[in-house]
Amino acid sequence: MQMAWEDVVNAVSSGVTAAGVIVAGFWALKRFGIEAPQWTRADASVKATLTSVIDGQDLIRVDVAIRAIGHTRLKVTTDDAKAPVVSVYPFTRSMLDSMEPAEWKNVLVSQRVFPVRQNIIEAGETMDSSHLIPLGSRSDETLAYRIEFTFWAYDPSFKQDFAWVASDYVVVCSPHADENEKGRWVRRLRSAMRS
Amino acid sequence: MGSQAEISDEKLKAIAEALQRTKERQAESTSVGHDDDEQT
Questions:
Q1: B21-39 burial by CB neighbour count: b if 16+ within 10 A, else e?
Q2: CB pairs under 8 A between A and B
C-alpha cells in the first residue's frame, strides 16, 4: 500500500514537471520565436508641407522620425549608399490617367537627413529631424509631390541591413493654370488618390 | 507610418544619382561663397 502511494506521488510529480516543461516551451516559443525580441524593429514617419514658393521655386518642409519600437537598440546605417534619405518624386498630370507608377523611380531631388555620426537609437526612443528642401522650378505637368523617407538599419540577428520607407504627399497646382483648370486638376487628383 | 520595404537596385541607383546632384549643388554654392570671400 505504501508503494502505491509513492507511485502516485511520483506520477503527480512527473506530471507537474512535464506540464512545467510544456508551459516553459510554449513561453519560450512565444517569447523568442514569435515575439523575437532580438529582431530590429522600427517605425519610420515623414510629414511634408509646402512652405513657400520663392522666385518660382517650391520649398518644402520635411519632418522625419525613426522610433525604435523593438526591445533592442537600432543601428541606422550611415554608409553613403544606404544613408537616411528623403527623396521627392513629381506626381504629373499624365498619372491622372495612368495612375501612380508601381515603383517610384523618377527622382526629382534627394537629400540626406540626420547628422552623419548620429546613428544609434536606444529601444523605445525616437530620433527626429526637420529639413527645408528646395525643389527648383515646378513643371506645369506637376500636380503634387510624393515624399519618401528611406533608411536602412543593421539587424545583428540576420547579419544584414533592412530598409524602411515612409511616404507623404504635397498637393500643388500649376502657377499658370487658371482657376477653372486648377479646380479640375485638383478634383481629378483627389479622385485618383482616393481610388 | 512607414514599414519595412524591399528597394530595387534600379531605384537605389536613381536615388544615388539624385544625391550626387544634390552634393554637386552644395559644392557649387560653397565654392561660389569662397570666391566671394576671396574677392572681398
A1: ebeeeeeeeeeeeeeeeee
A2: 63
